[in-house]
Specification:
Order of helices and strands: HHHEHEEEHEEHEEEHHH
Largest sheet: 9 strands, mixed
Number of strands: 9
Distance between the termini: 85 Å
Shape: globular
Number of domains: 1
Strand content: 15-25%
Number of helices: 9
Radius of gyration: 22 Å
Length: 242
């Protein structure tokens, strides 16, 4: 009987200790995932900018913002409900003339059941080419090709980047899958701020506009490679109206 009571007491004490002991929170787990995604975005962009046949330098220099979605799965576009997540960073200051700033978490949603992007995870890089496109994307869900003009981006250091399509587009998009890098049209897909992600990363409710355009938070350490890479590769905004 004494052994039985001792066993019961031990079980009760174990349960009590587990209740009062610090437990890893879901938000901490989520934050780690978001920070990993920010860090992976920097890795993806570096790998893309390091290949010979990459994004034309003159287009990168004219971009107001860059959006990176690392490892988006084909299944994310299969039903239009799941989505890929990534980050958006813009040049800071008035008229986007300053250095690249803290990133906002972003979501990418597929257009239709028939949309195909290949059989494995695909990385996407989007260049936002003007103030209107940046403001729209940071404010709400934007459907590419409808709410914001979009086109497949030309590639290659010597590519002709001043075509009518390129000059009219507010968003130029690129993809990388199976090691192959190419311009790709994402018309029909939607891009939107991931406000829950921003709250998780920055520890407060804050809009994407306040993160990216108003600089109200400090960039996390995980964004160091992404931001330093852009400041090194494209330190100056060469848009004609800047």
């Amino acid at each position: 009987m004494k052994k039985f009571l001792s066993l019961v007491l031990m079980v009760l004490l174990t349960g009590f200790v587990s209740l009062i002991a610090p437990q890893p929170t879901r938000s901490a787990e989520d934050k780690s995932k978001y920070l990993d995604r920010i860090e992976n975005s920097g890795v993806v962009l570096k790998e893309i900018l390091d290949v010979p046949d990459d994004i034309p330098q003159n287009l990168l220099d004219k971009a107001e913002c860059v959006i990176v979605y690392p490892s988006v799965l084909k299944a994310a576009f299969g039903v239009g409900a799941s989505y890929g997540r990534g980050v958006m960073t813009c040049r800071s200051g008035e008229n986007f003339k300053g250095p690249w700033g803290a990133p906002s978490m972003m979501a990418l949603e597929g257009a239709s059941v028939g949309f195909q992007i290949g059989g494995q995870a695909t990385d996407f890089v989007l260049l936002v080419m003007n103030d209107r496109g940046a403001s729209s994307i940071l404010s709400s869900k934007v459907k590419l090709g409808a709410d914001a003009s979009a086109a497949a981006g030309p590639k290659g250091r010597d590519a002709e980047a001043d075509t009518d399509v390129t000059m009219r587009a507010e968003v130029l998009s690129y993809s990388r899958a199976r090691g192959l890098f190419a311009g790709i049209s994402l018309e029909g897909s939607t891009v939107r701020p991931d406000n829950d992600g921003n709250e998780t990363v920055y520890g407060e409710k804050i809009s994407a506009r306040d993160v990216v355009l108003k600089g109200k938070v400090k960039a996390p350490e995980a964004a160091h490679q992404l931001i330093s890479l852009l400041n090194k590769r494209s330190p100056r905004n060469d848009s004609a109206n800047k």
